[in-house]
Design a protein that fits this description.
By secondary structure, the protein is an alpha/beta fold. The chain has a domain of about 70 residues. Helix content is about 30%, strand content about 20%. The chain has twelve helices and twelve strands. The strands form two sheets. An eight-stranded mixed β-sheet has the order 6-7-8-3-9-10-12-11, sandwiched between helices. It has a four-stranded antiparallel β-sheet with strand order 2-1-4-5, with helices on one face. A hairpin with a 2-residue loop joins strand 11 and strand 12. Helix 4 crosses helix 5. The longest helix is centred in the middle third of the chain and has 18 residues.
């Protein structure tokens, strides 16, 4: 296997409140190979977007990296100054944010905003940057880009605005594109078009993609590898085919079971009971123990590590010799049905 383009090692991220430092991300580790698409999945509040913001060096006020490394191109991004990160951000690592209407500046034209990214990172004239902005809009499938480049964000549909965000992210041909819920609030047809466009651009530019999503349908379409997060921790990581054929963690099984299927008619889809715990109220042991139907006293008192090999890792006591869960099949790799 080649050297990873990005390697996140034991990342801890949290926020300082009036009384203490509250850890949100706990020991998050994964890597992304050149040209690979990796999806991070999980419910809202599981730390997916915070992981991407930590990589970009864009943590909200009060947030800080408390431990771990983010290795990009053999360098630790957590040690970089604000100026150094500014040179990397948008140039080598770009990001598509969740909601394009709040990410685009309403008082500037689309063309000016796309051209700005080019002018900041590359030595070109304003005319060259403007021409490249038009070409980028054409590349992402916006019709009549010579006219659209003069539009303001409110003059474009949601799908068009999302394409503009992709054009801005690709302005400097980054090696890594982070896409945070890139198809949220788009209808199914536009969503399919955006995902197809991203796949085509990935192949054209040879870039890697880190996609943040809660939509397992998107995962099945896009991902080479999947990272399942729950309450700020990685609970399972494997390739996409293996995840859908043999999900091991009870949380992953619950997510997949809750998906509607064309080959199976049911009156009511299964749900995972309860909610993701608040950061200040995390369980002592496994963070999923308060919602897991298989939880034992071991699960409630001691946090599991990540077990398995490089091909498939899972953070669950059921796959260890310490498990004593009433005779459940656990070490065979077979799916435990919810």
């Amino acid at each position: 296997m080649s050297e990873p383009l990005l390697k996140v090692e034991h990342l801890d991220v949290g926020f300082k409140n009036r009384k203490s430092f509250v850890k949100i991300l706990d020991d998050v580790s994964f890597d992304i190979q050149p040209g690979e698409t990796v999806c991070i999945v999980g419910e809202s509040g599981c730390g997916k977007s915070l992981t991407s913001l930590a990589i970009m060096g864009l943590l909200p006020p009060g947030g800080r990296i408390a431990g771990g490394k983010i290795i990009y191109n053999h360098e630790d991004l957590t040690k970089k100054s604000a100026k150094e990160m500014s040179n990397i951000r948008g140039n080598e690592i770009s990001m598509i944010f969740q909601e394009p209407m709040t990410s685009l500046n309403p008082v500037h034209t689309i063309g000016k905003q796309v051209a700005e990214a080019i002018l900041i990172h590359q030595s070109v004239s304003k005319k060259e940057a403007w021409d490249r902005a038009i070409e980028l809009l054409r590349l992402v499938g916006i019709p009549s880009p010579e006219a659209r480049v003069k539009n303001y964000p409110h003059e474009m549909s949601g799908g068009m605005r999302q394409r503009v965000m992709i054009a801005m992210a690709l302005a400097c041909r980054p090696k890594l594109l982070i896409a945070d819920e890139p198809t949220t609030a788009l209808d199914v047809t536009i969503q399919a078009q955006i995902l197809e466009q991203m796949n085509e651009l990935k192949k054209r530019f040879g870039m890697a993609i880190l996609m943040i999503t809660h939509d397992l349908g998107v995962v099945s379409e896009m991902a080479d590898k999947v990272i399942v997060m729950y309450a700020g921790k990685v609970v399972e990581t494997t390739d996409t085919k293996r995840l859908f054929q043999n999900p091991r963690h009870p949380y992953t099984q619950g997510l997949i079971a809750s998906m509607p299927r064309l080959d199976k008619e049911v009156d009511e889809l299964p749900i995972i009971p309860g909610n993701v715990p608040a950061p200040e109220d995390m369980p002592t042991g496994c963070r999923f123990s308060t919602r897991c139907p298989f939880a034992t006293e071991l699960c409630r008192t001691k946090a599991p590590g990540l077990y398995g090999d490089e091909a498939h890792r899972v953070s669950c006591w059921m796959y260890t010799n310490e498990w004593a869960g009433g005779g459940q099949e656990h070490a065979t790799g077979e799916t435990i049905k919810l």
